[in-house]
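tokens incoming
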């Protein structure tokens, strides 16, 4: 699998986040910071998460994608879209209720290009907080997710306690 990375492009006021390769939790701090900045500066337009070139995506990054829907809703913005052409990823999206928060398109779209989102050097504590918040977010999306992730969240909370990391400051 190719090492994962995320690209950003603004194509005629359509803001596109393109996930490429094997998307794992070390990318989450950069994605989180970039999403905060992007949603804050978006002045209209539409946001698209393109997973067409993602080979795999972990639950932490799925939680960060779910946060996009929350941020847009809080700001009264249009619902974002997810483009995903890979059957295994589509199965995950639908099984986790992403279709209730996003417009999901399983057909290829003519999106290309983009610049890598800026890297963020996060402390282990900050990374742990992002991982915890992402999994709590996934738990809150559906009863099925709550059952899938309740033990994971409990374990992450234990790690936070052992590392003396606050669990209420997560976004």
């Amino acid at each position: 699998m190719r090492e994962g990375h995320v690209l950003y492009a603004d194509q005629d006021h359509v803001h596109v986040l393109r996930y490429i390769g094997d998307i794992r939790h070390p990318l989450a701090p950069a994605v989180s910071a970039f999403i905060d900045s992007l949603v804050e500066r978006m002045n209209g337009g539409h946001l698209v998460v393109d997973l067409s070139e993602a080979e795999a995506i972990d639950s932490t990054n799925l939680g960060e994608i779910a946060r996009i829907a929350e941020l847009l809703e809080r700001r009264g913005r249009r619902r974002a879209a997810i483009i995903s052409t890979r059957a295994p990823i589509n199965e995950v999206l639908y099984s986790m209720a992403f279709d209730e928060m996003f417009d999901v398109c399983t057909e290829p779209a003519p999106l290309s290009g983009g610049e890598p989102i800026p890297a963020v050097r996060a402390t282990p504590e900050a990374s742990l907080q992002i991982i915890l918040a992402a999994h709590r977010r996934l738990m809150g999306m559906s009863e099925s997710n709550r059952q899938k992730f309740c033990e994971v969240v409990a374990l992450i909370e234990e790690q936070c306690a052992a590392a003396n990391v606050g669990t209420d400051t997560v976004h």
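note: The mean pLDDT is 91.
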